[in-house]
Amino acid sequence: MTDIVTAPTGLAEGYEISTDPGRLDAARVHHWLSTDAYWALGRARDVQDRAIAGSLNFGVYETASGALAAYARVVTDRTTFAWLCDVYVDRAARGKGLGTALVAAVREELRSYGVRRVLLATHDAHGVYEKLGFRELERPDQWMALTLEG
Fold first, then answer.
1. What is the DSSP string of 46-72?
2. Dist. CA 19–CA 25, nearest whole Å
């Protein structure tokens, strides 16, 4: 796996996408998610760090400064299945198409591994993901979830 992901058409000039874990600003990711993402509000830093360590992580970086502008995490075996989660674009960088470009890059990277199924859950961004080929589950009655509490 290369650390610089081939940029999809539409990535704003001045940005690049990388999977290099050494570039990832874990403190910034934790701050974004634990304070501004409805699905991760209050998430503990150690929990976020473990999630990062066990996942394929994508960052969108400003090429001039190297600052992280957007993030996505993928839980995957890199062979048959992936779950796209924790997609977040810094509020200051929104409106530039970074989220769409990021998810397109994730899709293409997973495609290069041969992954055939990518799932995600979203409360309010269906339109963003539909533009990139995501659809509602055809047979939601075949899916189940186990919630472990405590």
1. HHHHHHHHTSEEEEEEETTT--EEEEE
2. 12
Fold exhibited by the domain 4-133:
Aminopeptidase (3.40.630)
Tokens of 113: 């591994």
The model's pLDDT over 73-89, given as tens digits with 9 standing for 90+, comes to 999 999 999 999 999 99
Closest CA to 24 of 40, 3, 43: 3
32: nearest Cα among 98, 117, 89, 103: 89
Q: What is the reported pTM?
A: 0.92
∠20-99-2 over CA atoms, to 5°? Answer: 25
Give the span between the Cα atoms of 86 and 97, in whole angstroms: 17
Q: What is the pLDDT of residues 20-57, one digit of tens each?
A: 999 999 999 999 999 999 999 999 999 999 999 999 99
d(CA 105, CA 28): 21
Sign of CA dihedral 125, 49, 108, 62: positive
Helix axes 45-53, 26-36, angle to 10 degrees: 120
